[in-house]
Design brief:
This protein is 18% helix and 31% strand. It is α+β, with helices and mostly antiparallel strands. Strands 2-1-8-7-12-5 form a six-stranded mixed β-sheet, with no helix packed on it. The protein starts with 13 loop residues before the first helix and ends in an 8-residue tail after the last strand. This is Type IV pilus assembly protein PilW. It holds the Pfam family PilW. InterPro entries: N_methyl_site, PilW.
């Protein structure tokens, strides 16, 4: 009789199962850690790339607005720098503003005074600076055109000639000691050898803020700023709003009304003037000056005095520092509590940005760039 040998199948023992589970858990923990680290690196790279792109775009926008500061009127300093600008749009007074400018520009004086570029220290949101830029955009020479004395009358001016002018051109009528008034050439105007420049259109007005066109009678000048279409002048306020957005405001309301967003994630903006303190005719920046320094505050630079005009003429560049913040929040703090701006310059002009409490886990970046104010170099 044959007996079959029975075999018994054995599984893992309890110690073996425990060892296998421990190994599996260790492997799972290692993989999870690697994935988490990779995700953290990816988020950091993405956040850094976003900051880089945003910084480049914001810098480009500001450079574009500032580089032509003073174009169209900086060749006649005495007649233009510091003059109170009066503008009427559709028979309503636009400048001086009859009420505060919209936020974040409410701290900028409503009686706007002409200058290529002015930094209003601490006038924006969170104590950031506001920068006012004025630039014409005319195809004509930037030389001031003399107006025949006592020829300014309602609806017209008399010049030596009107070559190169066309309908819709915006003119800055200026006279030392009187002020500045923006006027517009009429829709039917055609420039040429004729001396009579007829005014009309949305920006033409005989009286603005109590100043009449006939008061420009002694030694008035005209600057062609540009046209209402095509080559429009740029009179802009640039600043940071409460939502951490770089914004602009068109003082002439040629392109848009109200505050316009330019770039998000910009939490601070500060400016320094590059000044030729030697004033030896070499046109070289010898010192960087804060817009809070004596003689270089916004009020001092636009008071219309000879000293103010001379200081404006020797501002050859502006250096801007932007502080940008990412939207992504990390699990741990990745930013120091304070950031130093203009750190490569003398300590006297260093400025500090304090990171708000609770946001140190977001990435911040300081970007600085210098813009030469080429239209001011030849001003006399």
């Amino acid at each position: 009789m044959m007996h079959r040998r029975m075999t018994v199948s054995r599984g893992f023992s309890l110690p073996e199962l425990m060892v296998a589970m421990v190994i599996g858990l260790v492997l799972m923990l290692a993989v999870t850690t690697m994935v988490a680290r990779q995700e953290s690196v990816r988020r950091g790279v993405t956040s850094g790339n976003d900051l880089t792109g945003n910084a480049a775009y914001a810098s480009y926008l500001l450079d574009r607005e500032m580089r032509s500061a003073g174009a169209g009127f900086s060749q006649a300093v005495v007649q233009s720098y510091g003059c109170a600008v009066r503008v009427s749009l559709d028979s309503a007074q636009l400048l001086p503003a009859t009420k505060p400018f919209p936020a974040p520009f409410a701290a900028v004086p409503p009686d706007y005074r002409l200058a290529p570029l002015i930094a209003f220290a601490g006038a924006g949101a969170h104590g950031s600076d506001v920068i006012a830029v004025a630039a014409g955009n005319s195809a004509l020479s930037e030389a001031a055109l003399p107006v025949v004395p006592r020829s300014a009358a309602p609806g017209e001016l008399k010049l030596s000639n009107t070559l190169g002018m066309r309908a819709g051109d915006l003119l800055l009528l200026s006279q030392a000691g009187t002020g500045c008034m923006v006027q517009q050439l009429g829709n039917n105007f055609t420039g040429g050898p004729t001396q009579r420049a007829t005014l009309g259109g949305r920006y033409a007005a005989d009286t603005i803020d109590g100043l009449t066109i006939t008061q420009f009678s002694t030694k008035p000048f005209v600057f062609v700023l540009g046209n209402v279409v095509g080559n429009q002048p740029r009179f802009q306020l640039l600043g940071i709003d409460a939502d951490d957005t770089l914004v602009s405001y068109d003082l002439l309301q040629l392109r848009s009304e109200g505050v316009q967003p330019l770039a998000e994630g910009v939490v601070d903006m500060r400016a320094l003037y590059g000044v030729d303190m030697a004033r030896g005719g070499q046109d070289q920046v010898t010192e960087w000056v804060a817009p809070t320094a004596s003689g270089f505050t916004a009020a001092a630079l636009t008071d219309g005095t000879a000293v103010a005009r001379e200081n404006l003429r020797h501002i050859l560049a502006v250096r801007v520092a932007l502080v940008l913040r990412s939207d992504l929040a990390e699990k741990t703090d990745v930013t120091a509590g304070k950031l130093t701006l203009f750190s490569d310059l003398p300590a006297a002009v260093h400025q500090t940005y304090t990171v708000p409490a609770g946001s140190a886990n977001q990435r911040y970046r300081v970007v600085e760039f210098t813009v030469p104010l080429r239209n001011v170099r030849d001003a006399r």
